[in-house]
Amino acid sequence: MAKSNSSSHTVEPQFVLSLTEIKSSYGVPTETIIEIIEEGIVSIDNQDNPETWRFDNEACRKIRFVLQLEKDLGVNVAGSGLALELLEQIEELRALLALHRDI
Predict the structure, then answer these.
(1) DSSP of 49-75, one letter per residue?
(2) pTM of the full predicted structure?
(3) Cys-Cys link to 75, which of 6, 35, 52, 79 (CB 3.0-4.6 A)?
(4) What are phi and psi of 10, to 5 degrees?
């Protein structure tokens, strides 16, 4: 019997956290989250009302990344945003390269 070449992909469960849940989960003040939003690292709807802010999986991943760089390397929020942007560009380029290799 032949093996299937299909690769298995893990699907991450989708969730949404409030500002209060984010602050509690990561142990950070509101000001830190506001700084991350103001740097454009994470975007939210209705910036005027923090009570309605919701953070999805991707936003949580980015917040965690920023906080980890600050903790481990002392990188500020702006620097973390740049690092995150560069890493995302690298991933896009790798995906394009992989596509061209398959051609």
Answers:
(1) -GGG-EEEHHHHHHHHHHHHHHHHH--
(2) 0.79
(3) 79
(4) -85, 135
- Is residue 41 a contact partner of residue 55, using CB atoms and an 8 Å limit? no
pLDDT tens per residue across span 55-78: 999 999 999 999 999 999 999 999
Asked if the 16-102 domain carries CATH number 1.10.1660.10, the reply is: yes
Number of C-beta neighbours around residue 50 at 10 A: 15
Does residue 67 come out as left (phi exceeding 0), alpha (psi in the -120 to 50 range) or beta? Answer: alpha
Coil, helix or strand at residue 44: coil
Q: Determine whether 65 is exposed, middle or buried from the number of CB atoms within 10 Å of its CB (0-12, 13-18, 19+).
A: middle
Residue 79 neighbours by CB under 8 Å, 6+ apart: 69
Task: Tell me the domain boundaries of the chain.
Answer: 16-102
